[in-house]
Specification:
Layout: H1 16-34, E1 42-43, E2 49-53, H2 63-68, E3 76-79, E4 81-84, H3 95-98, E5 101-103, E6 114-117, E7 122-125, E8 130-133, E9 141-143, E10 149-154, E11 162-164, H4 172-176, H5 184-210
Parallel strand pairs: 3-9, 4-10
Antiparallel strand pairs: 1-6, 2-10, 3-6, 5-11, 7-8
Pfam families: Glyco_transf_92
GO cellular component, one term: membrane
Keywords: Glycosyltransferase, Membrane, Transferase, Transmembrane, Transmembrane helix
Length: 211
């Protein structure tokens, strides 16, 4: 209407799968840069992924205890992936303790793996492994053995063979006794009080109607 002309230019975007991978790389790199002067190591995992240091003589180990025994020179600590059939979660038993079927296969490094990165030494972080280092090349990598730690991925995948695994249960008692965890008894008490209030309200309304 104003006599303007509009020119269209083609802009070829990569396929959706590749775009998703590029977006993952972008936020991974952003995380490394943000923590460059704040954190000794950074790990990026999905909400259904947990790094699990394997127990020693039936006793749980923390990630801090695991990393303390690894060489300081290693800028990238890679953790290999296993899948779990995810069970339903309850307030008194989260799915990480209810899920007891784990894939027999431990996926190789670079496929589904995740890693701890030294943000001051990793130049380019990938999705499943570190791509480039400021110096030293691939000798800055350290792959954890299956007896040290695994990435527990709670998402059943077809084609996998599963076996029973109760190793995660070493953390059930310490975690459920933590003050940070909601106590089922408390919420049951709240629910009981709510039910009583509703019953009393119904009784009051019934009496008013009868009048």
């Amino acid at each position: 209407r104003e006599g303007l002309t509009v020119d269209f230019f083609s802009w070829s975007l990569p396929a959706a799968k590749k775009s998703w991978a590029l977006a993952q790389n972008a936020f991974t790199q952003d995380c490394l840069y943000r923590h460059a002067n704040a954190s000794r190591r950074v790990i990026i995992v999905d909400l259904d992924e947990y790094v699990f240091p394997l127990p020693v003589r039936g006793k749980p180990r923390t990630i801090a205890q695991l990393l303390a025994k690894l060489p300081e020179s290693k800028a990238c600590i890679v953790v290999r992936n296993v899948f779990w059939v995810r069970a339903a979660s309850r307030m008194d038993r989260p799915f990480i303790f209810a899920s007891l079927n784990r894939s027999r296969r431990v996926w190789p490094t670079g496929l589904r793996s995740k890693y701890f990165a030294d943000p001051l030494e990793v130049l380019e972080g990938g999705i499943h492994f570190c791509r480039r280092f400021l110096s030293g090349g691939r000798n800055r990598d350290k792959q954890l053995t299956v007896s040290q730690a695994l990435l527990f991925h709670y998402r059943g995948v077809r084609g996998e063979t599963y076996a029973r695994d109760t190793s995660m249960l070493v953390w059930e008692k310490p975690l459920m006794n933590s003050p940070l965890m909601s106590k089922p008894e408390f919420w049951r008490g709240v629910a009981s009080k709510v039910r009583n209030v509703l019953r009393n309200s119904v009784d009051v309304v019934s009496r008013l109607i009868q009048r």
